[in-house]
Write a structure and sequence with these properties.
Elements: H1 29-36, H2 40-52, H3 59-72, H4 79-86, H5 93-105, H6 109-121, H7 130-141, H8 144-156, H9 163-175, H10 179-187, H11 194-206, H12 210-222, H13 229-242, H14 245-257, H15 264-268, H16 271-275, H17 279-288, H18 294-306, H19 310-322, H20 329-342, H21 345-357, H22 364-376, H23 380-389, H24 395-407, H25 411-423, H26 430-443, H27 446-460, H28 466-478, H29 482-490, H30 498-511, H31 514-527, H32 532-544, H33 548-560, E1 569-574, E2 577-582, H34 591-607, H35 626-631, H36 634-645, E3 652-656, H37 662-674, E4 679-682, E5 687-691, E6 694-695
Helix pairs in contact: 1-3, 3-4, 3-5, 5-6, 5-7, 6-7, 7-8, 7-9, 8-9, 9-10, 9-11, 10-11, 11-12, 11-13, 12-13, 13-14, 17-18, 18-19, 18-20, 19-20, 20-21, 20-22, 22-23, 22-24, 23-24, 24-25, 24-26, 25-26, 26-27, 26-28, 27-28, 28-29, 28-30, 29-30, 30-31, 30-32, 31-32, 32-33, 34-36, 34-37
Length: 700
Amino acid sequence: MIMAVAVPISPAKITTTKPIIITQIPDNPKTLILEKCKTVKDLNQIHAHLIKTSFLSDPSVAENFLESAAILVRHQPLDYARSVFGKLNDPDSSAYNVMIRALTLKNCPHEAILMFKKMKENSVQPDEFTFPCVLKSCSRLRALEEGKQIHAQVMKLGFSFCGFVENSLINMYANCGEVGVACKVFDEMSERDVFTWNALFSGYTKSGCWREAVDLFRYMLEIDARFDEVTLVSVLTACGRVGALELGEWVREYIEANGLEENVTLMTALDMYAKCGRVDVARCLFDQMSRRDVVAWSAMISGYNQASRCKEAVSLFHDMQKANVEPNEVTMVSVLSSCAELGALATGKWVHFYIKKKKLPLTVTLGTALLVFYAKCGSTENLIEVFENMPRKNVLSWSVLIQGLASNRQGNKALKYFDLMLANHIKPNDITFIGVLCACSHAGLVEKGRALFASMSRDFNMEPRIEHYGCMVDILGRAGLLEDAYNFIQNMPVKPNAVIWRTLLASCKVHKNVVIGEQSLKQITDLEPLHSGDYLLLASIYSSVGRLEDANRVRSEMKKMGIKKTPGCSSIEVNGVVHEFFSEDTANPESEKIYAETEKMMKKIKLAGYVPNTSDARLEAEEYDKETSVFHHSEKLAIAFGLIKTCVGTPIRISKNLRVCTDCQNATKMISKVYNREIIVRDRIRFHHFKDGLCSCNDY
């Protein structure tokens, strides 16, 4: 029943509210109280009348009035109900149940458990209605020990076969991380309704047991158990996590056949398609939705990000802004991840600004996403600032900071933060050690690297993985200790993979060691098919020692076998838009202008002493065309575009899918000097900070 409030227009009449009078209490007083008690004012009047007429001494009347005070009258603090409860003479289980339920509903789980304790202390026997609410409070607090004690009471009083009590037990154990115990309760149930199944699904999804959730639903289908939309949301989410596309398709067909498409929550769960790699199908469903809330937008953006379609993720985020849908933490994490992959510093910085403006809490997840973003954009000042401002940090946050500093040639600073991490009693993990070993590699700290590698098993009871062995090979190879690196690989307790040998091969190129380079290439050949980069590294080693015939022979073999260089792709962000360039590419609408700027740029650096390295030209290029080929490498086109579109003196940031070749390394050093620009290039391996004719990698 809705109360209508008349607003007087003219003339105003003075009205008075008639007092509520109860002349007789029926056998079931609940109906009467429900009819009469709609507001706090009604509550006060009925309370006064019940006291005056002594009806409040009737237990059934008192309990129903208590229920109105505690639960039925909305937006009413519990102080009134507590006062009523405190004046009851010997309240029974029904009165206690009302208070426990009210405290649970009003999000006071700790007080609900204390009320249950008081009930036991006063020797009031709980019933089947007591346990669901107090177990829900245990679930919210993750109070496992209290939950176990209440479970013992359930068993003792014989309520272990009561369906809604058992469902509450499953929820409690699952939410407290004891999925195995939740399953045991489930398995021992003689009858299961849809709420029982959903309780276990909820437990599986909260604990990340995605495969178990998928298997449970398949079992439901086998025994023809009833399910509902809540079940399907859990199942679709689980299908996405484990890539169970066939089952996900079946669920989608069921949804369409039963007319459930309008349920936005259910449609949002169809990010299953995105997580199974079917992003275009997911986008079709997204476009068909009549209403798109923040969950739907976030799911679609996350789908693009996980499919490495980062430009589309950022573009969709811009559409989300135009639709005036406020992003949440999940959205921000996905957008930052996409910006990190694209090197889109301006867009990511806008996201950071938005987080500050909206005063969103800098959680560990969001803070770590910002750390990854700034680390991958080569912005170490922002990286450290975000880290220092994070109220809480976990081992991943520390590891990202250390790795970010290491990859940006700040190895000594990375090691200082590692020492600070240990001083703060944060135990490092295997990812942390990859970061600290990389820091030693970039800083040339061979002995420190050896000591840290040894400390993994000795001090932290951690067996080094293949990645850690690869870091040690890089440390030794970078320092020119190629014999030591080769012997280290030969004595590894795990079989070296192709990545380990490629790391050594790259070191051989820098230090011009033909013998170990040839041996490394042979080892790679035995492990997997060679790709263009392996041949080109060996050809470069031959060229560096003057064995040009051997270098040409390697390149000729590549041609005969039809091996082509992987196309280089470089991207640059200008005014929030990411532009991509391929070698000798003419797809950009401003290509003519870009190539003119490139020619001008190359002429300038030639005058300053740059000499083209034509061995980095495309394989099929004729001798007369090789210089032009290297001039039009993707990063040179991207730099030229940056010179056209950005202000004089501002840094130019480039991301590249391959390692920077020798010619582009030399050219970019010279460009940074001639144009007085800092140029930051993130290639497949590391960051290169070019400034005043030098590179942070020291040409490694």
